[in-house]
Specification:
heterodimer, A: about 350 residues, mainly alpha, ABC transporter involved in vitamin B12 uptake, BtuC, two-stranded antiparallel ribbon, B: mainly alpha, two-stranded antiparallel sheet
Chain lengths: ~350, ~290
């Protein structure tokens, strides 16, 4: 292993990304700004998947489901109940994620053993059936979805696609990111890393592993729901496809491609893929095969480079957390944890 | 009376389709702990091969015979390239198979240009038994399924290959020390499972046509059949498939005849059955047909 610098690259990465996101709308065209805003919202979705998969090892194909439900909650509240208060809307979107994930999660996590496959398949089924259900449900608009015609305002900013909406979303993304960082670096985050590494061991050590898994699942669903609400506000539309496999796949792809288990990875992954889509699909041949390209990319990353883009930038040593130190703790990769245990404890 | 017979017949044929799909899936899961989400896409590829053969003006029976072989070949390739690296990491394997499913599905979608096609089968038509019309093709499906089950059972219990498979299922390390090449066995099993999927796809193409999303509708059902019946044996997933296939098809029929189709959509049946299965699998995580050992 090559020698590594003593400083941590991750905060530098965060600052760079933040700076780039702050400056871009001022330099680029309005089109870029409007295109970038949903990408930031999708980055939130990717972060929610990362919380489940990257930190805890829960493969949840249901992030798209909560995303869509959040979007539908906001759209329905605006259209049917004429509720235009942003705070109420976002609270509703977050709550929708919490409630459904709570109900479903009680089911998923408490009780039997052999959970990994069960969770993956059940969330897969949830997305699939949810989309089909909403596709045929007249009251929510069936296949036509819900269009939002009213404009919601918050603190004097009109939430129309544009620069102010962009900065508002960037602000929300930063808040979400910091919140997730806080959760992940806390004791809960430590337990989650343990769950990802070796659930049984943690179980034998006396932890009730279902509880942190359930908690992070609900938390991630809340974020996904919130993101869904914002997305529907920006796009002024929500449809059954938002609930189904498509967005769940995107969440997984962005997170894995960018680098799962680091919160900055999903953001970078989302930016990379969506900006790639923006520019590359101008070329006719690529546009036709874009989905295949994404699928192949996903396979390639999973099989050959599981650490994602961020793996190229952040050294392997930095990924290993230091127990007992108040420096940034990063998630363990199974490989590196084995290496660490072979090299002895780093105290 | 004749109505009940007709309903039972159609339920049986749908359950047979489920059985063949689930058999391939469950064999792979029991053997190698690989949950292959792309299995549904293998089904779709079997159907696609039949469509291609028809396009190239080959006889349909030849297409149906070769479809399992082609898909089995693809299965071997996929296993060697993707899944072999992920044996120790089940969840990542699921993710990889999900990505593979996307590649296959979208690949076929662009090849089909997003359209659906119907394959003309000269075996369509029906025969009359006791005054009731029975679709000839559905009869063929049921017959083929029974033959396949018997064939698999004989293969597993009466042949040396079957013995090795059962040995590797029971205790892989012991099997390896006894000189059985588990890697080759795994490739074989995966190819077998994929071949079964291809067979299922070839069989259902006269009924459902070929479209890129052909497999997706069976995916969730197939997995739940396997979970419900129990993984780790041969007959348990088959029984699980029978239960799930029959209840889905049967309840759809009930919905049609009871007049509830004014209030509920077809997908409500799927959701209902899904919830019930979820609860049952939760209560009996090893499957309802496995005996506690």
């Amino acid at each position: 292993m090559k020698t590594v610098p003593r400083y941590h690259i991750t905060p530098i990465l965060e600052v760079v990304v933040l700076a780039m996101l702050l400056i871009t709308p001022l330099l680029a065209s309005r089109f870029i700004t409007i295109s970038l805003t949903p990408i930031l919202i999708l980055a939130m979705l990717a972060i929610s998947f990362d919380l489940c998969w990257g930190y805890t090892g829960i493969l949840s194909f249901g992030q798209g489901f909560f995303f869509g439900i959040g979007g539908y909650t906001v759209a329905l509240l605006i259209n049917k109940a004429q509720l235009l208060n942003f705070y109420a809307l976002s609270a509703a979107a977050i709550l929708s994620g919490i409630i459904i994930a709570g109900l479903f999660g009680v089911f998923l996590f408490f009780g039997s053993t052999r959970q990994g496959i069960f969770i993956a398949l059940s969330t897969l089924a949830l997305s699939y059936l949810g989309e089909r259900l909403f596709n045929g449900w007249f009251w929510v608009g069936a296949a036509n979805g819900q269009n939002i015609w009213e404009v919601v305002s918050v603190m004097g900013i009109e939430l129309n696609p544009g620069i102010s909406f962009y900065y508002f979303i960037l602000f929300l993304l930063a808040v979400t990111y910091l919140l997730c960082r806080f959760v992940v670096k806390s004791q809960l985050g430590l337990v989650l890393s343990g769950v990802r590494q070796n659930e049984e061991r943690l179980d034998f050590l006396g932890y009730r592993i279902q509880v942190p898994k359930f908690l992070i699942f609900v938390f991630a669903a809340a974020i996904a729901g919130f993101a869904g609400g914002l997305y529907s506000l920006h796009e002024a539309f929500v449809g059954p496809t938002y609930i189904g496999w498509v967005f769940s796949t995107f969440a997984a792809l962005y997170c894995i491609f960018g680098g799962s288990g680091t919160l900055i990875g999903p953001i970078i992954g989302t930016l990379a893929i969506e900006l790639g889509r923006l520019y590359l699909t101008d070329i006719e041949e690529i546009r036709a095969y874009w989905q295949i390209v994404l699928g192949l990319l996903m396979i390639g990353v999973i099989v050959f480079r599981p650490t994602g883009i961020v793996g190229f930038i952040i050294s392997e040593k930095e990924r290993i957390g230091y127990f007992g130190y108040k420096v940034s703790k990063w998630r363990f990769r199974k490989k590196w944890a084995q290496k660490a245990s072979m090299e002895g404890p780093k105290i | 009376m004749e109505f009940a017979l007709k309903m039972i017949f159609e339920v049986l044929s749908y359950a047979s389709i489920m059985v063949i799909i689930v058999l391939g899936l469950a064999v792979i899961i029991s053997m190698m702990d690989i949950v292959n989400i792309a299995h549904a896409e293998f089904v779709m590829l079997g159907a696609y091969w039949v469509y291609l053969m028809e396009l190239w003006q080959f006889p349909i029976w030849l297409a149906m015979m070769t479809a399992p072989l082609i898909v089995a070949l693809l299965g071997i390739i996929v296993e060697k390239t993707i899944f072999r690296r992920l044996y120790d990491n089940v969840i990542t394997g699921i993710l990889a198979s999900y990505a593979l499913a996307i590649v296959l599905r979208e690949g076929v979608r662009s090849l089909l240009q997003g359209k659906e096609y119907y394959v003309a089968v000269s075996y369509s038509g029906s025969i009359e038994v006791f005054g009731i019309q029975f679709s000839l093709w559905r009869m063929a499906i049921i017959t083929i399924t029974v033959i396949v089950i018997i064939f698999c059972y004989l293969l597993l219990t009466r042949t040396s290959v079957g013995l090795k498979v059962r040995g590797a299922l029971d205790n892989p390390s012991l099997a390896r020390t006894s000189g059985i090449s588990t890697t080759r066995l795994y490739s074989l099993t995966f190819a077998f499972g994929a071949g079964l999927a291809g067979l299922a796809g070839a069989m259902i193409v006269p009924l459902y046509g070929i479209s890129a999303d052909l497999g997706a509708r069976f995916l969730i059902q197939a997995f739940y059949s396997a979970l419900l019946g129990g993984i780790g044996g041969f007959i348990e997933p088959v029984l699980g498939a029978v239960v799930v296939g029959s209840s889905l098809s049967g309840f759809q029929w009930l919905r049609n005849i009871s007049g509830l189709d004014q209030f509920t959509s077809p997908v409500s049946i799927d959701v209902m059955v899904f919830l019930v299965i979820l609860i049952v699998v939760k209560l009996r995580p090893d499957g309802i047909f496995t005996s506690k050992q």
